[in-house]
Design a protein that fits this description.
alpha/beta; 5 strands; five-stranded mixed beta sheet; 5 helices; 143 residues
């Protein structure tokens, strides 16, 4: 019986490891034309949670989300701000109700976010690391 429990425990640990490997490595990006330096997670969280509309150098910052319910979006907010989709929904309900902000615009996927951010130096978004190209510049890698 103890062997069976150990086998189940081992299988569970392997499954957890496989699930961790399945999640994408996300990078926060700005346009290659944006002069913003590397940003820290607190600065980026402030922009994406509607607490700041500026990059540290004073330029306008417009956050761009991936579509609601996407794995990238859920992973981004969990890693950056420790917020689950339910907590994020509650945050934005409060912000909208009190007139303090609107949630970021959405794009369909990493390719769409990359295109929109590349075309607009004010935008900041997050994409799967595999979708990076020279049109955008990473300012933070989420691990």
């Amino acid at each position: 019986m103890p062997h069976r429990i150990l086998n189940l425990l081992g299988a569970s640990l392997l499954a957890l490891g496989a699930a961790a490997d399945a999640s994408a490595q996300l990078v926060v990006i700005v346009s290659a034309r944006n002069p913003a330096p590397v940003l820290n997670s607190e600065q980026i969280a402030a922009i994406f949670l509607g607490q700041s509309a500026r990059f540290p150098d004073g330029l306008e910052a417009v956050a761009l989300d991936q579509r609601l319910g996407s794995q990238e979006r859920n992973q981004f907010y969990q890693q950056l701000a420790g917020k689950t989709p339910a907590l994020l929904k509650a945050h934005w309900s409060k912000m909208v109700f009190t007139g303090r902000g609107q949630p970021p615009r959405e794009a369909a996927d990493s390719a769409a976010v990359r295109r929109m951010v590349a075309d607009n130096p004010s935008m900041i978004g997050y994409i799967d690391r595999d979708a990076l190209d020279a049109s955008v510049r990473p300012v933070l890698v989420l691990r």
